[in-house]
Specification:
There is one protein chain. By secondary structure, the protein is α/β, with parallel strands linked by helices. Helix content is 48%, strand content 8%.
Length: 302
Amino acid sequence: MANVNRAIRLLLIPLLIVGYIGYLALDRWQTDHNGVAQSFVAKLTDLQFAKTPFTGLILGGSNAYYSLSAELMSNLTNGNFYNFALSNEGFTLAGYQDEITRIAGDPARRDRVLTVIYSSVMPFRPGSIDPYTNPLNPADVGSGKPKFWSIEPTESLIQVIRRFFSPADGGLDTQYPLPTTAGDVNFATTACTDEVPQAPPNLEALEMVVSFYQRQAEFLSHTFPKAQIFMVVPSEFKADDGSYDQWSKRLTTLWHDRVGSKYRLLIQPPFPVAAYLCSQSHHANALGRAWRTIDLWGRMNL
């Protein structure tokens, strides 16, 4: 028995440790390399070879990628919008701003952009703004994403096994679906489920939200000097404890006191039903995307 225990300690335990480290390495590579790189390259390629210069941009995180439609906004405004929202807002503020600057192009191209919409879910993720704007390691930033050196995988082994046997249940193609020519999610090739629980009523401190939104608005105004800038607090399928309406009113007041009317702050209502969702509380399906885009367009014209 002693020899068996010794063999376990010397062989089995080290093998398990090495195997788990290998699993974590594969998990990080799949999450940080394949999906994000695929999303970046697809969107940049579409923009670089676009035949018609865009007059409007949709920016922000996956909430805007899934839940706002550049194609529909183009139809509503008689403009030409492109959706350059990226998962986790490009993971860092500096990195995303570099990509926005790259697609902005020369001064003549920048001057054609008349409308910029920026939609971030960070007001609903307390503690996410500081690491996004001041990251210690770019690989650490992301909504709900574990630190690169964390012992916690992005998804469990059970989820990996399930995805292996049922690819439509949330592989990389559904986490980072390739966009349409307008940069929108292509729901024809994206599997969704509306079995999504309501997000908790978490809200970031008002000062933090105003500071972050103002900083991003000033960058966008400098990059696109002729554009009207709309900073958007997005829709989410949220549990309502009565705090959201009061928080929204206080945020609006603070924004007007600090920023004024130079940049518009628009706060969209929560998604009313789970039937509007695509697998996450802040991701819309095709129906929810149309609902949210039309709602935003209406608020832009008030």
